[in-house]
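2 proteins. here.
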Amino acid sequence: MYNGAGKQNSLMSRIIAVFNQAGGVAKTTLTQNLGYQLAQLGHRVLLIDIDPQASLTIFMGLVPRQLEQTVHNAIVEEQPLPIVEKIHGMDLAPANISLSTAEMQLVNASMRDFRLKEAIEPIQEDYDFILIDCPPSLGLLSYISLVAATHVLVPLETHFKAFEGTGELLKTVATVRNKPNRKLQIAGFVPTKYDARNSQDTRTLAAITEQLAGAGTVFAPIPRSTAFVDASEERMPLAVYEPKHPSVQILKKIAVSLESLQ
């Protein structure tokens, strides 16, 4: 653990669920890269992988099948949250395929909605930011992530079909706000995989900005780029892999904006 290193912050830890029920919206990429940018700003950062696909765990350089302790042990068996320390300046609570059975195992579990929240509480004050990489679904794992979070950050692919599902996503957030987590706030929306040369992308971006601005901040779009794929294959954040890539500055600006979350 960090033993208090990093920027001192009088605010409580910001727990941000990076959530979209659609797959392929760069959710994991955004989690890793925003976590890195926040760490570069001097914050103590924990990433939590609660997706059975374990993409974040892989992107961070671990081999899921080799892990003996994962988030599964914390939420199903109520063991301490396992943490791998200091990967590119961040800590990671990893996942593997064992999480795929968690929803069924938790069906009749006591206080199941609060299992992740309770796993985080003992270590919460050790971090300024905790980013949760949610599964691409509206299932229980996403639900308990929203219950545990203080904020939700929504990546949205700038494609009309991907944008169409936003209504269901907002309904899920509203359901969580209605009872188990009344303080949950929307940190904002991040348009991803944006191609300014594509007229459909520009129209969808305009629609996202117009229709969602009232619900939360709509950040500058992150361009579509193979550099993100290349960086993840090398198990590193984009800013480490290609520091001068133009998306690095966009990610940094989003991270700076997240610092002001209350």
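next one coming up
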Amino acid sequence: MKGDNSESSFCIRKLTKTEIPEAHSLAWKVFCEYESPDYSAEGTESFRKSLNDPVYLSGLDYYGTFDGSKLVALCTIRVEKRHICFMFVDGSYHRRGLGSRLIRHVLNEYKGESVTLNSSPYGLPFYKAVGFVATDEEKTIDGIRFTPMKYIPQSKE
């Protein structure tokens, strides 16, 4: 049932190496549509460069949500630091719970561990809603605006 909003119509899984270029294309498309308007030209260029920097991209695990064979959401995590680097959902799939399901899937992969990320201004309400808390004020580095955040798992006491 492609396009259906039911959870069963979407598949979340780790991406293969051959799917990574598609993931970068999705990240760039969503960034340009939703993030870039809040950034300077320097910030947009810095983000574009990160998508093409093999050193920056090394050590990332890629997870995606698929609607049939179409990648519609992406989350990457830098494994050794437990740091989410990219989190993007195709605009036509916003407000359907896909981002929440995807990030919970990734957090579940690191169950019991703290996970960090740097939220864009656009993503801040989403990350707060899924349980991340700001650890500092907004910063701007190389034109990229972000708020450092951390997810601390709840203890089962």
